[in-house]
């Protein structure tokens, strides 16, 4: 179709002539530029909207029920804070463990480990509740000025599988503006204003608080209602952060965590143990430990892609964990973890988390024989390191 | 309710600013630099109006 034929579609030639006359000169130039801007807005808008696709988690053989976080706080229903809660119940009665992944969506080993659990394991005794995307809103946007990518891929036998790489906090579209100072409820602790969207500074939360506080409250309420005995929050940290490759435990959970650390060391997995600071509020291990009956711990692995000293940021850095700048930094004694050319690949980081969870379940069951929590077929570090992580992502 | 009201007010403000920039982009008296500046501004404003970014 020619332009003239297109014009004729208007029916009367006069209408098209009038439009073109109106837009003549600078107006026509402005209209053409605006049309270009509109196409850029549409293209970039589609990319942003695509980031809101929920994480695809396949239902494994051990999943007995799928709930929603909004089941524990109906106000979250139909919001971006609502997310799936996978229930894996064993045949034998026992205790209940809650696994939190994705509290910080820029720490991929945590939520990939949670997905691996959902898709592979079965419970023998007790129950496991798994939330792969605890801060689901944070998965819908990346942090500004960080040059982070929206997604990364992992090779699986069925092909490449994509995972979102989100921002550290709640999407500003869901909670804005940030105050100058964040006042934590109920402690009254003051933190920098942008921490108001950090879910791991929002616990125990409140039902009528801001968006992040409501999400945190739903998790706290779930811990109370489901009588959760043990909470394991999966995180990562940059290599220059002092609390790394470590377990952070509430004082109630410290005896249990001590046993786990010793057992992991016996397996050749180097790991530290840190007490949950009593004067730093809003974190899972502090608030869930204080406000519920659960034993609350947090595990950290090494994630070079979220560090300040990293080199080029791309999907390969997230998966391979190799970075020349960190190899230089370790030579300058700037890091709190060993770092060589092999880096810290996602396979290693996920297997550390899974080994930690396995040891926590064993230690808890030994300490509480009346409320055992035992799982079968948790992928071992050896299986993951030799067979690859993709083998366990279906 | 307060949240929805604030969002509505915010979008109305963005719509007003977007209207102004489109007007300037199409204005006969605007020179090329002003037109281009106005056009570039419309991209984030449109995304904000639709609450995409």
Describe the structure.
Chain A starts with a helix and ends in a 7-residue tail after the last helix. In chain A, β7 (181-183) and β8 (190-192) form a beta hairpin. Chain A has helices spanning 3-8, 13-22, 26-50, 108-120, 211-225, 254-266, 284-291, 315-320, 324-331, 346-367, 381-387; strands spanning 65-68, 84-89, 92-100, 122-131, 151-156, 159-164, 181-183, 190-192, 230-237, 246-249, 272-275, 295-302, 374-376. With 394 residues, chain A is of the alpha/beta class. In chain A, strands 1, 2, 3, 4, 9, 10, 11, 12 and 13 form a nine-stranded mixed beta sheet that branches. In chain A, strands 5-6 form a two-stranded antiparallel ribbon. In chain A, strands 7-8 form a two-stranded antiparallel ribbon. Helix content of chain A is 34%, strand content 19%. Chain A has two domains: 3-46; 59-392, 3-Layer(aba) Sandwich (Aminopeptidase), CATH 3.40.630. Chain A is built from eleven helices and 13 strands. By secondary structure, chain B is mostly helical. Chain B has one domain (2-49). Helices cover 81% and strands 0% of the residues of chain B. Chain B contains two helices and no strands. In chain B, α1 (2-26) runs antiparallel to α2 (32-49). Chain B starts with a helix and ends with a helix. The mean pLDDT of chain B is 92. The chains are: A alpha/beta (394), B mainly alpha (53). Chain A binds chain B through residues 25-27, 29-31, 33-34, 36-38, 40-41, 44-45, 48-49, 173, and chain B through 22, 25-28, 30, 32, 35-36, 38-40, 42-43, 46-47, 50-53.
């Amino acid at each position: 179709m020619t332009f003239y034929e297109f014009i004729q579609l208007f029916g009367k030639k006069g209408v098209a002539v009038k439009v073109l006359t109106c837009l003549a000169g600078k107006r026509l130039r402005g209209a053409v530029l605006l049309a270009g801007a509109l196409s850029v807005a549409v293209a970039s808008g589609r990319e942003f909207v695509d980031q809101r696709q929920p994480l695809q988690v396949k239902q494994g053989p051990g999943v007995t029920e799928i709930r929603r976080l909004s089941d524990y706080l109906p106000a979250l229903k139909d919001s971006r804070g609502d997310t799936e809660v996978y229930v894996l119940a064993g045949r034998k009665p026992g205790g209940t463990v809650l696994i939190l992944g994705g509290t910080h969506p820029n720490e991929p080993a945590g939520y990939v480990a949670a997905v691996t659990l959902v898709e592979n394991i079965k419970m023998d005794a007790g129950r496991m509740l798994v939330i792969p995307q605890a801060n689901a809103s944070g998965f819908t946007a990346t942090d500004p000025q960080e040059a982070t990518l929206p997604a990364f891929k992992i090779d699986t036998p069925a092909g490449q599988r994509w995972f979102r790489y989100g921002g550290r906090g709640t999407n500003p579209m869901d909670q804005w503006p940030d105050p100058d100072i964040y006042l934590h409820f109920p402690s009254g602790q003051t933190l920098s204003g942008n921490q108001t969207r950090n879910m791991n500074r929002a616990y125990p939360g409140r039902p009528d608080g801001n968006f992040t506080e409501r999400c945190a409250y739903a998790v706290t309420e779930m811990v109370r209602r489901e009588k959760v005995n043990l909470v394991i929050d999966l995180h990562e940290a940059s290599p220059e952060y002092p609390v790394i490759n470590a377990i952070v435990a509430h004082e109630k959970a410290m005896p249990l965590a001590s046993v786990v650390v010793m057992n992991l060391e016996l397996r050749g997995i180097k790991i530290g143990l840190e007490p949950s600071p009593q004067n730093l509020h809003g974190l899972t291990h502090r608030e869930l430990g204080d406000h519920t009956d659960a034993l609350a711990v947090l595990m950290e692995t090494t994630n070079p892609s979220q560090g300040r000293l990293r080199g080029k940021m791309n999907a390969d850095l997230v998966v391979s964990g190799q970075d020349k700048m960190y190899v230089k930094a370790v030579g300058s004694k700037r890091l709190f973890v060993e770092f060589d050319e092999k880096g810290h690949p996602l396979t290693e980081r996920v297997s550390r988390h899974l080994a930690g969870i396995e040891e926590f379940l064993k230690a808890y069951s030994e300490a509480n024989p009346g409320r055992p929590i035992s799982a079968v077929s948790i992928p071992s570090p050896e299986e993951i390191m030799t067979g690859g992580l993709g083998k366990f992502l279906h | 309710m307060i949240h929805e009201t604030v969002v509505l007010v915010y979008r109305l403000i963005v719509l007003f600013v977007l209207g102004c920039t489109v007007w300037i982009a199409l204005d006969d008296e605007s020179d090329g630099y002003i037109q281009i500046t106005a056009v570039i501004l419309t991209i984030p404003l449109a995304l904000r109006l639709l609450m995409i970014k």
